[in-house]
């Protein structure tokens, strides 16, 4: 009965001229960072578990995991605007939310480069009635991407492999059509794992065949396995020259793979760590700080 009542409840109506004061619910870390960079963080009344930055978002009412949303959980927050990342799900729940929300639900397109990030900013800014702020934000981020392109080393870069998991089972390596693969391109690096999309378990044999110059892993992966040394000594990686030389790059997953306003800076930091010479710093921006 509760489920029927919630799904039958329409989204609250918000005046078009006052969208930034509306109740906003978000699923998707990169989308949440865009909302905050637009100056609309105070409008957020709920977020999913991938919304980790700024850290204040983790103290909002939680929706669970991005790809396992509950229509009842979302609607119980009485949202006036619902902004979802492209991979929010499951699909039947998104369809239920769309039926309840109508035009007040926006699913932001996949972000994997400067152009798609600019398009995502435009979608979010329009939903929040903050088009002028969106134009300014997109313009500033475009400046960062131009600076990154100018400083990025020319020619084929080092080959890298990004890993997730690595706990009880084999680690999962990022293939094509992943945020990791897109970040590698921005940093002037090459994905050592080719021939497949998304993530696949990687065996010691497959890792040796790929023979990456560097291993990349989000910091939470290291936390899960007991640190960098434990990851590099795992059966799938121990025989790799990169593992023996401790060529490992790690960063917070929201920063490294979130594809929000901090993307150019994250790519610059990855490139600086892995290429043979450091890159100049990009300009400081307000949305880089956890405040």
Task: Give a quick summary of the entry.
The chain is of the alpha/beta class and 291 residues long. It contains 13 helices and 10 strands. The strands form 2 sheets. Strands 5, 6, 7, 8, 9 and 10 form a 6-stranded mixed β-sheet that branches. Strands 2-1-3-4 form a 4-stranded parallel β-sheet, sandwiched between helices.
Estimate what percentage of residues fall within beta strands.
5-15%
Helices, by number, come to 13
Mean pLDDT: 91
The CATH top-level class label of the largest domain:
Alpha Beta
Please, what is the CATH homologous superfamily of the largest domain?
Nitrogenase molybdenum iron protein domain
End-to-end distance: 41 Å
CATH topology of the largest domain: Rossmann fold
In the CATH hierarchy, the architecture of the largest domain is: 3-Layer(aba) Sandwich
Shape: globular
Structural class: alpha/beta
The share of residues in helices is 25-40%
How many beta-strand runs?
10
Number of self-contained structural domains: 2
Q: Rounded to an integer, what's the Rg over CA atoms?
A: 20 Å
Main sheet, how many strands, which sense, barrel? 6 strands, mixed
Residue runs with pLDDT of under 50 for 5 or more positions = 1-18
Q: What is the helix/strand order?
A: HEHEHEHEHHEEHEEHEHHHEHH
SSE blueprint and pairings:
Blueprint: H1 2-8, E1 24-27, H2 29-37, E2 44-47, H3 71-75, E3 81-84, H4 91-101, E4 105-107, H5 114-127, H6 131-151, E5 159-164, E6 172-174, H7 179-186, E7 190-191, E8 199-201, H8 204-210, E9 214-218, H9 219-225, H10 228-232, H11 241-244, E10 248-251, H12 253-257, H13 263-274
Parallel strand pairs: 1-2, 1-3, 3-4, 5-7, 5-9, 9-10
Antiparallel strand pairs: 5-6, 6-8
Helix pairs in contact: 5-6, 6-13
């Amino acid at each position: 009965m509760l489920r029927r009542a919630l799904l039958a409840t329409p989204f609250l109506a918000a005046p078009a001229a006052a969208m930034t004061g509306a109740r906003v619910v978000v699923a998707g870390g990169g989308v949440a960072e865009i909302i905050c960079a637009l100056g609309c963080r105070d409008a957020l009344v709920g977020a999913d578990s991938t919304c980790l930055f700024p850290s204040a978002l983790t103290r909002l009412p939680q929706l669970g995991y991005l790809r396992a949303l509950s229509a009842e959980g979302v609607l119980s927050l009485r949202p006036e605007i619902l902004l979802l990342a492209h991979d929010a799900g499951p699909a039947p729940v998104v369809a239920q939310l769309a039926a309840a929300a109508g035009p007040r639900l926006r699913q932001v397109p996949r972000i994997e480069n400067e152009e798609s990030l600019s398009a995502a900013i435009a979608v979010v800014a329009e939903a929040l009635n903050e088009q002028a702020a969106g134009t300014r934000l997109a313009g500033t981020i475009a400046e960062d991407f131009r600076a990154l392109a100018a400083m990025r080393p020319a020619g084929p870069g080092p080959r890298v492999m990004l890993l997730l998991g690595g706990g009880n089972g084999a680690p999962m390596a990022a293939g094509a059509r992943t945020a990791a693969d897109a970040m590698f391109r921005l940093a002037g690096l090459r994905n050592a794992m080719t021939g497949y999309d998304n993530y696949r378990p990687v065996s010691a044999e497959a890792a040796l065949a790929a023979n990456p110059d560097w291993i990349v892993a989000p910091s939470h992966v290291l936390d899960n396995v007991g640190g960098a040394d434990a990851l590099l000594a795992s059966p799938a990686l121990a025989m790799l020259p990169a593992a023996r030389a401790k060529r490992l790059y790690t960063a917070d997953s929201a920063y490294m793979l979130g594809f929000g306003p901090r993307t150019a800076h994250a790519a610059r930091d990855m490139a600086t760590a892995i290429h043979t010479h450091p890159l100049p710093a990009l300009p400081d921006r307000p949305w880089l700080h956890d405040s």
